[in-house]
Amino acid sequence: MIINKLYILLIVFYFNHSYSEEYIEINYKGIEGVILCEEYFSLRYRETYNIYNLSFKEVYELENYLERSENRYPSYFRKYQGLIKDGKKYINIKLINPVYKHQYSPNWKEDKTVYIHECNTRTIVYSFSEKKIIMNKLNECGD
Questions:
Q1: Greatest Cα-to-Cα distance within the chain, rounded to the nearest angstrom
Q2: Burial of residue 19, with CB atoms counted within 10 A of its CB: 0-12 exposed, 13-18 middle, 19 or more buried
Q3: Which of 5, 26, 34, 39 is deepest in the core (most CB within 10 A)?
Q4: Which pLDDT value is given to residue 2?
Q5: Distance (Å) of CA 4 to CA 11, 15, 24, 98, 117
Q6: Is there a contact between 50 and 120 (Cβ–Cβ < 8 Å)?
Q7: C-beta separation of 78 from 97 below 8 A
Q8: Is the CB of residue 58 less than 8 Å from the CB of residue 102?
Q9: pLDDT for 44-103, tens place per residue?
Q10: In this predicted structure, what is the pLDDT of residue 106?
């Protein structure tokens, strides 16, 4: 009886922990990235943007698309964010050039400033309904 209760508590703890993560690490053919969960973003950000938790399958679909294109950016670190706008799903990716990784906190995966100041990052937006990239922009910052 006690073992059953402990088992149930462990399962509840596991599910609470797994759903309260801010990001999930992913590695696609040597390309390091994180899938950002809703908990990663502030309440104010979530009230402004309709965010959803991406699946690995959705990220793989995008990476397969990039792999077939000329602009794969294999050395860039990635932060994947799921967005819904007008009932359509999108992936918004922030690509961080390893040369500029130092401008973020020691752990770029946890650093939330990439959405505040986007200096020296690249933003790519992929539309699931159109099956193509609808935006590919380099965010340069001058002196």
A1: 67
A2: exposed
A3: 34
A4: 66
A5: 11, 17, 30, 48, 49
A6: no
A7: no
A8: no
A9: 989 999 999 999 999 999 999 999 987 789 999 999 999 999 999 999 999 988 887 777
A10: 65
Task: Let me know: does 120 contact 102? Beta carbons within 8 Å.
Answer: no
The C-alpha angle with vertex 22 and arms to 21 and 25, in degrees rounded to 5, equals 85
Residue 60 CB neighbours (<10 A): 14
Strands of the chain, DSSP E: 23-28, 31-36, 51-52, 77-85, 88-96, 121-127, 132-139
The pLDDT assigned to 103 comes to 72
8 Å CB contact between 26 and 34: yes
- Higher per-residue confidence, 28 vs 140: 28
**What pTM did the predictor assign?**
0.80
The length of the chain in residues reads: 143
What is the CB neighbour count within 10 angstroms for residue 90? 22
Q: What is the pLDDT of residues 105-125, one digit of tens each?
A: 667 788 877 666 677 889 999
